[in-house]
Amino acid sequence: MPLKLLKLQTLLYHNEAHSIRKFIECLKVIQVPVGWQLFFHLGDCSVEPLLDKEQLAQIEAELSVSDVSFKYTFFNENLGFGKGHNRLFQELPDCEAVIILNPDTVFPYHFFSRLVAMAETHPDYGIIEARQYPLEHPKAFDYQTYEGAWASMACSLVKYEAFKRCNGFDENIFLYAEDTDISWRIRALGYKIYYCPNGWFYHVKRLNQTGLVASKSELFYSPIYSLMLQAKYGREDLNENALAWLKRNTEPINKAILEGYEKALENMTPATPEERKVARFEGSGFYAHHRWKYDSFRDKFGRSDQL
């Protein structure tokens, strides 16, 4: 029986050399799932290539020991998260599944095997979301079925067929909210989103005494595409207060966010009626109930067949 092809996709953007090295060190000892072949595709959206020919040759040699195929693509432009991953996806023939993983991560040898094991026991999956440390998205999931509403793309295993059918990420979303959007569109096609509690990895985060320290990119792009997502799915009413606040508070960052949102709307493709049915917005602006705030998932979020 031929091996199933599992593709790993990772995007670089001015990442530090030691961070890239840690990622490669994890891959050197990764346990490739039995019956599968692993292909690692590294895309670079930096201004200049982060890896030279000598470094690439070294990585290829190191990974070949673990029978991991390797390819590096320098894009020569910052494509954004969704567009960059779409480009990587298009450069590979049909495969069984794709793991999308951030480069600022560290993971154990059994990581991929556990994600694949859950996929194999849940054939109706569209996405299997990994578990993040030290901070993870606290969105709710069904504690009996592990079914959820959407998946973070810091690391998720995506069924190739589902990714292809939904035409990948919405390239009008440059950064942030693209994972929620593709999750909803995949669910609208009839696939399910699952959370894998034993498939864990470490995602580097900046923390202080009060919690997570947001990056400049997050402070800029996250509000733009959160607003756009709500508009795309027909919930402009949720944007009214935020837009009014941005217009009143005309600091440079707020003005730039407002301009970015208006530009994003110019090329926005509205969600279909089927996609709107699976989209869920909380009054607080979250895309799902946060599980650490409620006593009962089923009382607050509904049965798994309502997800």
Provide the CATH topology of the domain at 4-206: Spore Coat Polysaccharide Biosynthesis Protein SpsA, Chain A
Question: What count of helical segments does DSSP give?
Answer: 11
Please tell me what the overall shape is.
globular
The largest β sheet comes out as: 9 strands, mixed
Helix content: 25-40%
Any idea what the CATH architecture of the domain at 4-206 is? Alpha-Beta Complex
Q: Which regions are unreliable across 5 or more consecutive residues at pLDDT < 50? A: 293-307
Our measurement of the CA-to-CA distance between the termini, rounded to an integer number of angstroms, reads 36 Å
Q: Which strand-content bin applies to the residues? A: 15-25%
Structural class: alpha/beta
Q: What's the helix-strand series? A: EHEHEHEEHEEEHHEEEHHHHH
Describe this structure in words.
With 307 residues, the chain is an alpha/beta fold. It has a domain at 4-206: Spore Coat Polysaccharide Biosynthesis Protein SpsA, Chain A (Alpha-Beta Complex), CATH 3.90.550. It is 37% helix and 21% strand. The protein contains 11 helices and 11 strands. It has helices spanning 17-28, 53-64, 81-90, 111-121, 160-165, 178-188, 216-232, 240-248, 252-266, 273-278, 297-301; strands at residues 4-12, 36-44, 68-74, 97-101, 105-106, 125-133, 147-148, 155-159, 192-203, 207-208, 211-212. The strands form 2 sheets. Strands 1, 2, 3, 4, 5, 6, 7, 8 and 9 form a 9-stranded mixed β-sheet that branches. A two-stranded antiparallel sheet has the order 10-11. α7 (216-232) packs parallel to α9.
